[in-house]
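Handout, section 3.2

Students often ask what a structure token actually looks like in practice. Rather than define it abstractly, here is a full record for Probable branched-chain-amino-acid aminotransferase. The first block is the sequence as you would receive it.
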Amino acid sequence: MSRIAYVKGRYVAQRHASVSIEDRGLQFADSVYEVVPLLHGRAVDEDGHLGRLDRSLAALGIALPLTRAALRCVLREVAARNRVVNGILYLQVTRGTARREHHFPAAIGDATLIVTARALPPPGDVAAAAVRAITRPDERWARCDIKSTGLLANVLARQAARSAGAYEAILIGRDGIVTEGAATTVWVVDRDGRLRTRHLDASVLAGCTRAMLVAVLARADIAFVEQGVTLDELRAAREVFLTSASSYVKPVIAIDGRPVGDGTPGPLTRQLHALLLREVGAA
């Protein structure tokens, strides 16, 4: 079956989908994106993801070209037309098409909205989800709280991880503190047994899965600290795991070739993996 995309108000075969060569998303990455997980045919934390999309659009001064209610209908239609039950919906909104000039064009039509769907297997056993990571300097721009499509630094970090036989690149800021993964939020159980993750500011993306896990932690009466983690603390951690929309809780069992803890998913990681999957209806 041909994959179907929604592009500028039309459902089209993905192989025939196109935008103008002067679309500002193509020319400048003047655009934002969002990823909404699908699980058993249901959009996971749809309000959280669309709320973050609104915040990213507001930061760039881009108006969504349809209402929130209409966007929800588009998301369901794209999932249905592609017969995706478990996977992700990918949304991209660009400022639109105009003559190539760096400043915002004085006259421009509606923003360009693109929605696609991709099937992914549902989350499974925590041990099967375990991955390796490397560390890399954080070379991204200063507004990582905006979910911009300008992801070249992330791409290079992820490629470095792949070349090293790892899944993720954990990024280290100029201050020597972990910011986040190239496409994930980083959590650590430090040597003293405290669960820690970095506080939110412009240097990191406010992860929707992070927010879900914070709510789960509160209900389970599990304490965590929003506190930066140094590279030395990362390497000495008892447990490290990642969260993201497409992977939920993913244990990290080695960093830069060194085992984390005993080299297997730790007890708190296992517990939180189970709790989060129960939260989203996967368990």
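Discussion prompt for tutorial groups: The radius of gyration is 19 Å. How would you have guessed this from the sequence alone?
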